[in-house]
Every structure is written in C-alpha cells, then in structure tokens.
Amino acid sequence: MGKIIAIANQKGGVGKTTTAINLAAGLAVLEHKTLLIDADPQSNSTSGVGFDPRNIENSIYECIIDNVDPSSIILETTTPFLYLLPSHIDLVGAEIEMIHMPNREKMMKVAVERIKADYEFIIIDCSPSLGLITVNALTAADSVIIPVQCEYFALEGLGKLLNTIKIVQSRLNPDLDIEGILLTMYDNRLNLSKQVVDEVKTHFQQMVFQTIINRNTKLGEAPSFGQTIMMHDINSPGAINYLNLAREILQKNVTPVISVSEQNIIS
To answer: pTM of the predicted model, to two decimals?
Structure first.
C-alpha cells in the first residue's frame, strides 16, 4: 500500500507546489512509483509537469464530486515512474458543492483509497488555504510535510496550520503524522536565513528535516518549461536538494535504508 503525504501550508509563496512536484519527481527518479495529486484549483502542479490545465477534461474535481474512478483519468508524465492526477479551475467550486454532502471531509479519502495500492508514494499538493479541500487532503493522508520559507515571517500562521492538523487528528484522521517541517528558499549569503533555520530548529527540533532547500534559479525556471527540476537540470543544486529530501523520506519509510550521499545538506 502506498504512503500518502500531503504538502500543506495556508501561507502562499513558501515553495509548497515546488516541493510537491519535485519531491514526487525525486521519488520517481529513485524508481519508486509515485502519484502526484494536484488538489489546488490554481493547477500549478498540473502545468508544472507538462500538462495544460485548459485541456484537462476530467480532474480530481470529478473524482470528489461525481465519484469518477481516479484510475481512469491519471496521466503518465515524461518522468519515468511519475504519474499525475490533475486539477482544474472547477475545483474552486467544489467546497461550496460539498457543504451539504454527508462525510464531506472524507470524499478525497474515498477516491484515493481506490488507487492507493497502485503506488509506493502519493504526494498531494494542497491549496494555500485551510478550507475544505485541504481538510480533505489531510484526512486522506498518512502524513503531512509543512514547507516553511527562510524569511522574516517564517512562523507566521504556522500555529493555525498545526491547530488544524490537531483537529483533523482528533476528529477525522487519528493516524495522521507530521512527516516533517521543510525549510525552503534558503540563502546562505543572508544572516536572516541562518537565524530562521536556528529559530525553527529550536522550536521544532526533530520535526525539522535535515535537508534544506536552497534558493535556486533552475527551480524557478523549470515550471515555465513544464518540467520538474529532475528533467530540467538533474545536476542543479535544487535537484540535489530534492533528491536528498526523497532519500531522507525513504530512510524513514522504506527498508533497506538508503543513505544520503550528497554533501550539500545544510546542518
């Protein structure tokens, strides 16, 4: 059975979609069959792996609202072992349609359970909100990764997200774990970035991933080509960062242990 990991933070601009796309690609490059679920109406994960959302006929929206079998709409990407369950702007209206539905918080879980056995990892890119779709993703997930940018307001809003996770754990998904807090957009030229790293590690200690995602031009370029960083430039610092993250997750979840050999992990 696949492990389902949600990537969530209601704060925008923290590298959430970048992490969802490239962690999924990293796991795929390491030959673990991986499904990326785009649960954000902006559909950036869909376009980020090479698909035009305007040409998507069926998406996660139809799976949730119309009970369409997700296996019938999953797309194969250009990265071997990486598959996509796409999103569409229609997802914006899903929360309103779901309000009066029974078990409205578990509709994504029902859809994902139908395909969970087909993949080793399922990565869900959540929307930048704490709305019903994000709650659905957290209810469907086994764990959650929280991206936190190395900037001044790094911890802003994190308390609200952690409170939402606690509510989901207590009412909807008692097995939900925090996979880890991921520090993103690190710039080793700035004292501020180093201070944020120290502050987050002081507050959250073992919850923080050893891997830190550096600011990297190639990471910003890749989506404009409809490519993951692994396809765009496998030798770039961004690709190495996300491969390190994938290995760190594998080390926690898969036997035998796969060691991290690259030397650019910031401790």
So the answer is: 0.91
